[in-house]
Amino acid sequence: MNPSEALNMITGETGAGKSIMLGAVGLLLGNRADTKTLLDENKKCIIEGIFNINSYGLEPLFEAEDLDFDYNCIIRREILPSGKSRAFINDTPVRLEVLKVLGKSLVDIHSQHDNLSLGATDYQLSLIDAFADTRSQLSAYTTKYKQYQKTKRALDKLSKEAFELRKEADYNQFQLDELAAMKLVEGEQQELEEQQEILDNAEEIKAKINDALLQLNADQFGAMTVLGQINQSLNQLSRYGQIFADLKERFSSAVIELNDIAATLDDEDSRLEVDFEKLDRIRERLSRVYQLQQKHGVDSVEALIKIEADLADRAFQIGNLDDELARLKSETEAEWQDLVELGAILSQKRISSFDQFAKHITGLLSQLGMENAIIEVLSKTSEPAAKGIDEIEIVFSANKGIRPQPIRQVASGGEFSRLMFAIKYIMADRMALPTLIFDEIDTGISGEVAFKMVSMMQEIAKKHQVICISHLPQVAAKGEKHYFVYKDNSSERTISKIKLLSPSERETEIAKMIAGSNPSATAFESARELLRQ
After folding, report:
1. Is 162 exposed, middle or buried (0-12, 13-18, 19+ CB in 10 A)?
2. Average pLDDT of 282-288?
3. What's the first-to-final CA gap in the chain, in angstroms?
4. Are the beta carbons of 124 and 396 closer than 8 angstroms?
5. Which residues, in sequence order, are bridge partners of residue 469?
6. Average pLDDT of the chain to the nearest whole number
7. Which terminal residue of the chain, N or C, has fewer Cβ atoms less than 10 Å from its own Cβ?
8. Of 147, 189, 67, 192, whose CA–CA distance to 332 is shortest?
9. Does residue 121 belong to any structural domain of this protein?
10. pTM
């Protein structure tokens, strides 16, 4: 299917499969996939569409999503038998959210089932913004709103942290003072434990040292006396060969080492004292270290030092918290004031358009057979929110003497369709809607109203591609191209198909829409007349 860039018509009997086509378009725009809609649930389904996006200004979107930009944009959806689906833009896999964002800039589908969207306040506000052309004001407001929200979140986060810090401040300070008083030093625990071990066994150590020194230095049988005798014998042997000379040198080295050991033992004996006061001090400090380690759930002095540093940092934060809170509070208040002012500017731009918006819609509805229709735009000011300070409500009355009420409460299906069509008509030049699809928007109208509606479609189609699904011959006859949806029963399973009608086929289809399956000559003449007009 390669529709015209202007106005296209699609007709067919009820149930022929027009909804299937819309469903396929919906999948290209990011709608959720359902395997129940597949012709064969055991095979992969592929839907592909090509969109000319030459003048839509979508390059920033493609750049932001790291997608290749091409004027002929190819969108593809693949639905797998497992129920999973994949989306591609120019053959690059994308998330469904990205496809939805792009889809909103490519196609706008309106059907009689989508009329409830008109009753949504956000949608109504977007209509007013488009009509009033508030792009610059809304952009300035939105930028400031995001900045305000960011600053407000920072203030709220810091306020929460301050509350928690202050709640624990006294206890944290106590713990900090307790650790700081210890004046802990890295590596001291091992050193203290070694000193305690020595002092605990000082008497036994001195006894062992003295015993060793006695064995080394005794005059008659001491090791050093015996070694002196051996040294004399080796000294005499050294005259009888190099081997004995080498042995004598080695032995002399051993004697020197033993003398050094004896001297060191003597020094240790002199230095080591049985000092119970020092031992008590060491025991007391180690006991306090062990208590702090148990209290904080760690097993080293180094870990305690780190905890002390963290507690000191918290104490510092509390000391500087008030200044930071005051700064953020002042900044938040200033941004709030700026936000209120920008919201007021945006609101004024919107309000100034209300009368003209209502007047345009009312005039169009009159041409569409609703001469007594009334449209009003009501608003009230609220606290600044994501889209401004306005709460918009469009009220509507289709009949004379009936007070306008919110749209969702008063409009019938046919009235709603005409109201939505009128809105789409005036918005076509104000909103980026390259392709508009109208699904049976002409339901409930006929005669001159139908002629007027299709004439307005032709106006829209001068700047936008329009696809209209219609049951009215007056409407169907005005398209540049006319497609026909039908059921093909030639195989074992019925298949819905769509084809472009030739001029003669189109004449026959219009005649059937006028007079039924067996049109008369008069019906054919009427069809030709509609096609000529």
Report:
1. middle
2. 83
3. 26
4. no
5. 10, 439
6. 85
7. C
8. 147
9. no
10. 0.65
Burial of 103 (0-12, 13-18, 19+ CB in 10 A): buried
Q: Three-class SS of residue 533?
A: coil
Residue 500 lies in a domain: no
Encode 2-22: b = buried (16+ Cβ within 10 Å), e = exposed. Answer: ebbebbbbbbbeeebbbbebb
* pLDDT tens by residue, 161-200: 888 777 777 788 888 888 888 888 888 888 888 777 777 7
Q: How far apart are CA 421 and CA 436, in angstroms?
A: 11
> CA 293 to CA 291: how far, in whole Å?
5
Contact in structure between 298 and 307 (CB atoms under 8 Å): yes
Residue pointed to by tokens 């080293």: 300
Q: Is 464 within 8 Å of 435 (Cβ atoms)?
A: yes
Single-letter amino acid, residue 190: Q
Does residue 408 form part of some domain? no
Residues in the chain: 533
Instruction: Please indicate, yes or no, if residue 12 is contained in any of the structural domains.
Output: no
pLDDT surpasses 70 at 486: yes
Q: In DSSP terms, which residues pair with 7 in a beta bridge?
A: 466
Cα(480)–Cα(499) distance, rounded to whole angstroms?
Answer: 14
Residue 182: give the domain boundaries: 171-297
The tokens describing 472, both together, are 């009215």
**Both structure tokens of 230:** 């051996």
**CA–CA dist 436, 423 (Å, integer):** 13
